[in-house]
Amino acid sequence: MEIHAQVTTEVKKIITFLILLFFLFDQFSAVEVAGMVTQTEMEERIRVSLEPESCDVVVLSEEDRKYGVVIVSRKFNDVPLVKRHRMVNDLFKDELLSGEIHALTITAKPLP
């Protein structure tokens, strides 16, 4: 009877561990899938806000969440480079703060 109680206790511990492991894995997977901003979403956000003549978004490293953008817009005319970069960074502020976007390489040119 004592051995049966010990086995039952060990089985309960293993089941509890497996449930906890499954829960943690499920949460991690949901963050990875739900937390990825897409190239299309980035392009759309840039188009709506900056009305560019041209806009290219490149995934430099999906694994490392690194992106590059090249934007040519009238909204950059007579705007200093630092402010142009700030305008683009502000579009992705939440993603940059959360780590969803780790790095964003920006080329922001005024329309000639």
Automatic annotation (TrEMBL):
GO CC terms: mitochondrion
Keywords annotated in UniProt: Signal
UniProt-listed Pfam families: BolA
SUPFAM superfamilies reported in the protein's UniProt record: BolA-like (SSF82657)
Gene3D superfamilies: BolA-like
Source superkingdom: Eukaryota
Record's signal peptide: 1-30
Family, as annotated: Belongs to the BolA/IbaG family.
Protein name: BolA-like protein
Protein source organism: Trypanosoma brucei gambiense (strain MHOM/CI/86/DAL972)
